Amino acid sequence: MMIRRRARNTLALAATALAAALTLTACGSSAGAQGSDGRLNVVASFYPMEYLATKIGGEHVKVTGLTADGVEPHDLELTAKQVGRVQKADAIVYLKGLQPTVDKAVAGSHAKVTVDAATAVPLEDHHLPEGHTEDDGHDHHAEDDGHHHDEAAGDPHIWLDPTRYAAVARSVGAGFAEADPAHADDYRRNTDELVGSLTALDREFKDGLKDARGRTFVTSHAAFGYLAEAYGLVQVPINGVDPESEPTPARLAEVQKAARDNGVTTIFFETLASPRLAETVAKDLGLGTAVLDPLEGVKDRSKDDYLTVMRQNLANLQAALGTGANAGPGATAIPTS
Known about the structure:
- By secondary structure, the protein is an alpha/beta fold.
- The chain folds into two domains: 11-123 and 157-198, Rossmann fold, CATH 3.40.50.1980; 201-321, 3-Layer(aba) Sandwich (Rossmann fold), CATH 3.40.50.
- It is 41% helix and 12% strand.
- The strands form three sheets. A four-stranded parallel sheet has the order 2-1-3-4, with helices on both faces. It has a four-stranded parallel sheet with strand order 8-7-9-10, sandwiched between helices.
- The longest helix is centred in the middle third of the chain and has 26 residues, at 184-209.
């Protein structure tokens, strides 16, 4: 696991596992069968995976999201009922390593098809400088129910690069076609349409940021490494991949120096985590703040989805970096975690 998680309640997990086992026993051979309405029963781990499943599956799928709106996905703990849904799903769409409680449930599933986004797109490492850690000086391993999780497995935020996200979409479409061949043509058509939208979004980002006067942005945690890489920007995160870790004083000093050296005007925070650190850094430097949404969830699905939030991210980056014919000063990169 690439992120440090807080210790979990052993008794609660044991109770969840027991309840899930009883659920499986009761379900017997029904696991993996399509629903009574003929739709593919799909479980998606968190919003970016749920969005793909819904768009690609269309009317032929029933999608159950495991992470509720407003919940930070790293913190998810499955209920016994949710574990049972994972076990009985026809298809699962998730990102292995992001949510240990989901990984555990998927390992015991009888799904026809399991699509792991981390196998569709290789994860890359975005590390803090050598000798610096995300919190109080401990190494990058944390015990979780007797297991060690290694952050070096890679940055999970692949959906923030539309081209990488499109590759995951292709895998989801192929998986649905395999699980439900009767509607394979529809899944392929929906996939092509979604990939087309993501390709257009990629072009909007390229055109919208190519002449930005600044190239460096400061954000509350290191969710935007793939986005920065795709569009020639430099991400300077206050925290590492875990949004709730605490940076060292040395890290804060490095962030402040990078902001001054590169003419940063805005410190970005996000919607599902506390803005406290971003606000503190901005106040110390006399800078403004704005939202850069890592899209791990959405707050209001009646008006927002992946595409609308990403376009708002683009607008906020343009406002912070400035646009014009001449690029700004060269950026001083701080490696990210």
